[in-house]
Amino acid sequence: MAMNALSRCSNQLRRLPLTRLRQMSTSPWSFFEMAPLDPIIGLNEQFQKDDYPSKVIVGVGAYRDEKGKPFVLPSVRKAEKILAEGGLDMEYAGIAGEPRFVDLALEFAYGEDSAALKEGRIQGVQALSGTGGLRVFGEMMKKHGSTTLYLPNPSWGNHKNIFTNSGLEVKNYRYYDADNSSLDFEGMVHDIKSMPAGSIVLLHACAHNPTGMDPTLEQWKELSSVIKEQDLVTFFDCAYQGFASGDASKDAAAIRMFVEDGHLISMVQSFSKNFGLYGQRVGALSVVGRDAEEAKKVVSQMKTVIRPMYSNPPRHGARLVTTILEDPQLTAEFREECKGMADRINTMRGALKDSLESAGSTRDWSHITDQIGMFAYSGLSNEQVLEMRAKHHVYCTGDGRISMAGVTSDNVDYIANAIHDVAK
Ligand SMILES: Cc1ncc(COP(=O)(O)O)c(C=O)c1O
Fold it and tell me: Could you give the domains of the chain?
């Protein structure tokens, strides 16, 4: 080793605490502690280890068919066949991904007739599904001087980590009234009115995770004007378009209303749930600018975050969505299939409520059928959730969130009895 490299190395070692130096003499990893399991994904690991025959998992938000099996949309199967026969190359995508996919994704959310889209004021990039798009947004905003992002309380469990790791301070606004199992709209408006100008407010575009409670259209209208008065940066997280009502266009109503009202929003889209493309990591991150030039500048900044992070996104899932959305027949089939998933979930909401009543529960479970989207925010406490896991081997997240997509005619009574037993 050259002399100056040697002394640089010994200088660095001298700066390490003695205990760490001792540990390094055996292994550079000896001082690594076991990290806690992820509260949502970690549930699957726990579930796999459980050998109880009637065990049930209703934790992770992934759709299951009537037999409780993972479901691939028939339109996606058809698109796969078309792609396989297309003899496509496997070259890198650009930093912003597949341009045709991005165009179609934006039309899907903002609407083909969107004036802002036609004016070129909405631009975007392909993202590593919803999570990747959220992180790119967080990093970009931090780089451009933002300090604080507000999340609804509660929100999807990963939001806080994503934005804290992006360097933003994460705060909450009131969203859910647990005592009445309803939206705390008054609290929400009050908290938004107290946010300092320039703060980022994250809104779930539809099918709020975990509560399944969305503002009504009138309430969205009010939020639109309150947010405008406050001069906030509005960031929509759109992970369930099609899962709330079964109609993807209807579920985009809040986004479209905000853009029509003149908000210069940003939005992340996930195609995990509506297209059932979970592991393919298909998403988009977009921005609405005052003009095309401004939107393009923002996209260029998204690209400067993406390039050193993962260079460019995978192509296959984006090509699947493109193949479907480019073809009117396949798009119609997809819309039917998406509605089929939403309808099955709604049927299971009714079935779970009925089973709870048949099991003898006298509690009011109407919130299960009032809520929409993939989840039922059951109202079970953490203690009750843990008891249900230990006694009945029914796994839901620690906050009592039940993925309705995992409930089937075969397991609904078993789940209802388990809930009733711990909630009596
Ligand atoms: C509200 C919300 N946003 C984003 C995501 C991220 O999803 P993905 O990264 O799988 O697209 C999820 C997933 O559950 C979610 O519920």
Answer: 41-71+332-423 (3.90.1150.10), 92-326 (3.40.640.10)
